[in-house]
Amino acid sequence: MKTAQRLGNLGTETSFRVAQDAAEWKARGNEVYPFHLGDLNFPMAPHIVEAMDKAIRDGKTGYCPGPGIPELRAALADDIGKRRGVTIDPAEVVVTTGGKPVITKFLQVVMDPGDGVLYPSPGFPIYESQIEYLGGNALPYRYVPTADGFAIDLDHLRASIDDKTVAIIYNDLQNPISAESTEAEREAIAAIAQEFDLWVLSDEAYFEMRYKGRSKSIAALEGMRERTVILYTFSKKFAMTGSRLGCAVAPREIAEVMSTLNTNDESCTTHYVQWAGIAALQGPQDEVGRMLEVLRKRRDATCSIINSIPGMSVAVPGSTFYVFPDVTEAMEAKGIATLSEFSTEALHNTGVSFCTREHFGRRQDWEDRSYIRLAYSGIGENDITEGLGKLR
Ligand code: PLP
C-alpha cells in the first residue's frame, strides 16, 4: 500500500530526539544536565490548577464551540489587545491547542502549493516543516551577528521575494537565537510586507518572556493589523506547555476559516482547559514575575559560565530562555568537525545535553560559524553551574 508523497517533505522538531538520547543516557545510570528542551520546570500557579479542577467538577467536559468559548475569546481579546496597544474584537480570536497549530492553520489559509513563504533560519523548525509539507516554497531568511546579539539580514530577505511570495513568518523574541528587533527593524519588516502585499504571521510565543522593558507587536504598526495573524500561547508565560492552550488573533475573514479548520481538525480545544486560561489571564500575575526573576538568574549564570569557556562566546539576551553561543573555536581546539559530534561528546563526557544550529532549519548554506542552543527553562541554577562547569 502506498503512503502520501508529501510525507517526504515533512520535517519535525528534532529537539525531541535530543531529549530521547538524553533520557537513554540517563537510564544507563549517567548524570544528565538538560538544556535541550524549551519546557519549564515550574508548576502551574495554584489558582490556574484550581480553575481547571473546578471546571471539570462543574461538568465543563463536553464539546464546546470550535473557535473557543466566548468568555475566553473575550478575555484574550482584552489582554492581548491591551498589552499590544491594539483593539481586538473577540470575533478575531480563535482558540487553539497551544500556539503551534496557528502556524499550520495560517499556512493552510494563505498559501497554495508553489507559493513562497519567508521564515527565519535558524528558527522554530515547524515553520519550514509545514511550509514544505503543504507544498509551499520555503524561503529562509537569515540573521547576522551584531555586538549585542543578532539582526535580520534585510537585504537578503528582500532579495528572496518574488511574485509567488505570499507571507513572512516573523518571530520577534526569537527561538533559538533570542534575537529581538529594534524599532527600525520591525518597521522595515512591516514596510516590506506592505510593499509586496504579504501576510505576516507574528509568532509572539515569547512576548512576555522579557527581563526588562516591554515587548512591541508588529501588529500595532500602521497598516499591519489587517495583514497580520498573531500567534499567542499560554505555554511559556503561564508554564502551561502540556495543557495545550493558545490562540490566533487574525483579521475576521481569516479567523472564520481558521475556526472552520478547528472544527475539521479537533472539533474544539479541551473545554475545561479554556476555563483555566481565563483564570490565568484574569487572576494574580505574581507567579509570572517570580518565574521571570528565577529565569533571569539562570540566564546570568549560563552566560557567565559560557563566556568563561575558551572558544565559546555569547551576548546576554534580554528575552526568551535560550542562549545561542558561538562555539566555533572551541570545536576547532578539540579537533571536532561537526556539531552532532560535538553534542554527543558533550553528553557522553559531561552529561550536558543541548540542541545545535542543525536542529533549527535544514538549510545551512549561509553559515560558516557553529552555534549551539542552551535552554535554561528546565534546569535549576545549581545544576546549571555544575553541568556547565563540567563542560568548561
Ligand atoms: N513558536 C515558537 C517560536 C516556539 O518556540 C514554540 C514552542 O517552543 C511555539 C511556537 C509553540 O508553542 P506551543 O507549545 O504553545 O505550541
UniProtKB/TrEMBL annotation:
Names of required cofactors:
pyridoxal 5'-phosphate
Example GO molecular function term?
A: pyridoxal phosphate binding
List, alphabetically, the InterPro entries matched. Aminotransferase_I/II_large (IPR004839), AspAT/PAT-like (IPR050596), PyrdxlP-dep_Trfase (IPR015424), PyrdxlP-dep_Trfase_major (IPR015421), PyrdxlP-dep_Trfase_small (IPR015422)
Q: Where is the Aminotransferase class I/classII large domain?
A: 38-388
Sorted keywords for this record are: Aminotransferase, Pyridoxal phosphate, Transferase
Q: Which GO terms describe its biological process?
A: amino acid metabolic process
Entries under Gene3D superfamilies matching the protein: Aspartate Aminotransferase, domain 1, Type I PLP-dependent aspartate aminotransferase-like (Major domain)
Q: Which domain of life is it from?
A: Bacteria
Q: Which family does it belong to?
A: Belongs to the class-I pyridoxal-phosphate-dependent aminotransferase family.
Identification of the protein by name: Aspartate/methionine/tyrosine aminotransferase
Organism for this UniProt entry: Brevibacterium aurantiacum
